[in-house]
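WARN  no MSA supplied for this record, continuing single-sequence
INFO  ligand: zinc ion
INFO  echoing inputs
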Amino acid sequence: MKYLIDTHTHTLACNHAFSTLEENVAAAASKGIEILCFTEHGPKMPYAPPDWFYAELHRIPQVINDVRVLAGIEANITDEHGSTDIDNLSKKAIKFVIASLHKHTFRPGKENSETQALLNLLDNPFIDMLGHIDTPFFNIDYDAVIKKAAQTNTLIEFNNGSLHGVRRGGEHNMVKMAECCKKYNCLAAFGSDAHFSMDVGEFSTVAGILKEFAFPEELLINDKPDLFFDILKKNEKHI
Ligand SMILES: [Zn+2]
Ligand SMILES: [Zn+2]
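INFO  complex generated
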């Protein structure tokens, strides 16, 4: 598969990544990535940009050096009702939304609260992708969540960075996720979760896992820009 889309990248703006947007764009161009999602952490992540940063995303050119830049956000899911830290933000400039559980911003309460949070979140039509649900920090009922994601036009992310960074140990969860995507015909995406420009467009670890598992290529959107844009338009984005 020729990867044309990276759905998940960070920049200096979040204060724990190390490259600029222009450096990420240059890396994307050099790797043949045509659509780069710039998905900075939502405002509740410690040291993330303040809320007005996201209202200014419209200042970013839509095309830089022939790379289409989709300015989005990696929202934090904050409670089991599926609330996020973008619920009260201006959404006009946001072209792509990942919603993720992070241990800094979500504390599981009673049993199944992670699954409940994700199921409730999926009722929010503005969410385009569930980020790194392979995380070993949380207990997630993949069957229930991915079944609903397939019905609500929400991508399941296979996060390459998970397997190299702070969330190591979720490989077996990725296999369960892949099984459920196949079972429910749920679309999925590779995301690099790059925190340094050289990692933009880097999917080799997750691709290796899914290849071993014979994951159907038709469920992966990274080489299907038209399908990707259709999903975003259905999810209330002005593309
Ligand atoms: Zn994340
Ligand atoms: Zn991220």
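The chain has one domain: 5-234.
INFO  checksum written, moving to next record
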